[in-house]
Amino acid sequence: MIQTDRLTKTYGKARGITELTLHVPEGCCFGFIGPNGAGKSTTIRTLLGLLSPTAGSARVLGLDCVREREKILAQVGYMPSEAMFYPEMRVSEIIRLSARLRRRDCAAQADALCGALELDTRKRIRELSLGNRKKVSIVCAMQHRPRLYILDEPTSGLDPLVQRAFWAELEERRREGATVFLSSHVLYEVQRHCGRAAVLREGRLIAEGTTEELDLENKFFDYYEGRVRQ
Amino acid sequence: MTVFRKELRAGALSFLVWSAAIGALMAVCVGLYPSMSGSMGDMSALFAGMGDFSAAFGLDKLQFGTIMGFYGTECGNILGLGGALYASLTAMGLLAGEEGGHTAEFLLTHPVSRLRICLEKLAALFALVLGLNAVCLACGAGGILAIGEEADWSKLLAYHGALLLMQLEIGGMCFGASSLLRRGGLGLSMSLTMLLYFAGLLVNLDQGLDWLRFVTPYYYADAARIFAGEALAAPILAGCGLGAAGAALGLRRYCRKDISA
């Protein structure tokens, strides 16, 4: 579903990611973990075409990330770590805008998601808290029922009840065959929901495998501090 | 045309404020003409004899005492500066505003090409500037009809057409600049507009700076030249080229740049 081959992104002299080779199988829930500044968001943004790779390649759904960006984005639901929208628009307008940009009628799905997340669609974005903006982000990522979900710290800012509703919805989508690529700092999330994971540190992949093979429960902080490499 | 509609809605309040303000000022100006027309003969003579000052503002060529001269001077400055500032500010916010407001990530992770997004934003800019000029033309022309004056409508329309072209040219240049920035640009857009305005004054004053007529749109969007039937094809073409080059730079740059969060 996601395949990178020595993917590299540099910002001038600053490194982003270096020769990242990653494989995310279809139908998997894949955890992507690493300390701040490791390059997780850079990887995600390169996969989505927001950044151009310096070297290497990346394919999502079998499509090239640079040349076939729009085809990829039609089948991807993306949740950024910081959910930012047009402040003067209402929640309902943002959700409708997202659906129209996809040329899809997602009204029924959007209504169901807003109900499950208890999201007031009449409010303007500037009136929302961080958590409620995250809920808008969830609806925009999920309303079109994509094949692939790319989620960057999806539960940060969400209260436990909303987290539970979110994971329940995501699990249902996964049972229907969707693939999830999840970047998170939360050990519990990765352990509970992900079958496979990769660890990034200083722009390089230091470990990849099933969550059992990686023994995240005992080595989570070791990976973060660079004491363990696979 | 989702992005086009979104931009129109986002710019609606600004459009209403600017068109109302500029249109109202033009209407008020025209409305003052009858009460000033008695002393216009003295004023015309005064302005005609003020040397370089008159030349800079074209007052040595325009008959300030006539409705056309008065309109070209007063209303032309209001719409020429006001409209250009509106076009430059609107254009500068189109691309830089997305990154500055951190909404680029939301917009660009949908299955719409960046080229299409840019083209729809440009179309929105065109529609907003056209709309502002339509309102202002209605206010100016309505004011002339209301005070019962006779105007040369073909020259008036030609003048408004030149002002519209000028604003679109400045808008195109600012659109290109917007693609190079990640935020802001307010100061840059206003500075560019004022620079071009003052370049228009300079070209009237100094023969050695005649080359500026191909740089500043205030040269061809000048009432004195248009009412005198001066040949302006070359500066207009140069201006269109500059505006188009700015827009093309914006399209090319934005389609390739890395988008910050």
List strands and helices in order, with pairings.
The complex is a heterodimer of chains A (about 230) and B (about 260).
Chain A: E1 2-11, E2 14-24, E3 29-33, H1 40-47, E4 55-60, E5 63-64, H2 69-74, E6 76-79, H3 91-101, H4 107-117, H5 130-142, E7 148-152, H6 160-175, E8 179-183, H7 187-193, E9 196-201, E10 204-210, H8 211-214, H9 216-225
Parallel strand pairs in A: 3-8, 3-9, 6-7, 7-8
Antiparallel strand pairs in A: 1-2, 1-4, 4-5, 9-10
Helix pairs in contact in A: 4-5
Chain B: H1 2-10, H2 12-36, H3 40-48, H4 52-56, H5 67-100, H6 104-108, H7 114-146, H8 153-180, H9 186-205, H10 223-227, H11 233-256
Helix pairs in contact in B: 1-7, 2-5, 2-7, 5-7, 5-8, 5-9, 7-8, 7-11, 8-11
Summary keywords:
A: 230 residues, 2 domains, 6-stranded mixed sheet, 4-stranded antiparallel sheet, 10 strands, B: 261 residues, mainly alpha
Written account of the structure:
The complex is a heterodimer of chains A (230) and B (261). By secondary structure, chain A is an alpha/beta fold. Chain A has 2 domains: 1-75 and 146-160 and 169-230, P-loop containing nucleotide triphosphate hydrolases (Rossmann fold, 3-Layer(aba) Sandwich); 79-144, no CATH class. In chain A, 37% of the residues lie in helices and 27% in strands. Chain A contains 9 helices and 10 strands. In chain A, strands 6-7-8-3-9-10 form a 6-stranded mixed sheet, sandwiched between helices. Chain A has a 4-stranded antiparallel sheet with strand order 2-1-4-5. In chain A, helix 4 runs antiparallel to helix 5 (130-142). The longest helix of chain A has 16 residues, at 160-175. The model of chain A has no long low-confidence stretch (mean pLDDT 91). By secondary structure, chain B is mainly alpha-helical. Chain B has one domain (2-256). Chain B has 11 helices and no strands. Chain B has helices spanning 2-10, 12-36, 40-48, 52-56, 67-100, 104-108, 114-146, 153-180, 186-205, 223-227, 233-256. The chains are: A alpha/beta (230), B mainly alpha (261).
